[in-house]
C-alpha cells in the first residue's frame, strides 16, 4: 500500500507526489480532495510521476479569494508545476477538475504535455443548467453537504454504495467538512463555466482524451462528444455501465483507459520531435 505524506507549495497548495517518469497531475472534483485519486496513484505510479493536489477551497489548500475565476484555479496548477520544476505535465481533470484542466490548456499551452478531461461538463441544456443553479442556491443556504444524498446517488451505482458503506460514509463526511465559502466559490464556477472560452478550444494542440461514463447523468456521453469535436484530434472514450465517480468505483477500468492514452500521447510527441529534429 502506498502511503504518502502531503507537502505544500510556497503558496500553500497541498499535494501528494510519487513514482518516477513523465509527470501526470490529477485534479479532483468539487467538494472532494486529492484523496479521491488513490486508485489512480496506485495504478499509474509504476510508470509515471503522479501528482495529486487539493484545489483551492478544498482539503488542506487555501481558500480562493472572493471573485476568483477559472484562471485563478489554473494559476494554482501553474504554481505547483513551477514549485516542482516541471516544464510540462500531462493533466487529468475530473468533473470540476476538467474545467480547470481546460482553462490550464487554454492559458498555458506550453506547459501541457497532454490533456484528459474525465466526467466533466460542456454545453449544458437549459434544464441541466437550471438544476445545477438550484443546487448552488441550496449549497449557499444550507452548506456543502446540502445535496450530499442526491450527489452520491448520481455518482455511484446502487451496488457499489451497498457494498462500500464505510467509503460512502467517509465521502459524505468529506462533503460536510468542506469550507463553506471555498466550496461555494468553486461550485458557482462549476455551475456556470461549462462554456468557458469555448470559441478558443480549437487552439488546443496537445493530445487530448475526453472520457465519461455511459450512465453519467450530469457529464453525459453527448457532452463528451460535443467537447471533443471542438478540440482538434481529440479522442473520446465512453466507459460502459459507468456512472460519475468511475475513477473511484472502477479504478482498473479507468486506469487502463488512461495508460493507453498516455502511451499514445507519448509516442505521438516523440514522433513530432523526430520530425522537428
TrEMBL record:
InterPro entries: AB_hydrolase_1, AB_hydrolase_fold, AB_hydrolase_sf, Epox_hydrolase-like. It holds the Pfam family Abhydrolase_1. Transmembrane segments: none annotated. Keywords: Hydrolase. GO terms for molecular function: hydrolase activity. Residues 23-250 form the AB hydrolase-1 domain. It comes from the Bacteria. PANTHER family: HYDROLASE, PUTATIVE (AFU_ORTHOLOGUE AFUA_2G14860)-RELATED, MONOACYLGLYCEROL LIPASE. This is Alpha/beta fold hydrolase. It comes from Pseudomonas retamae.
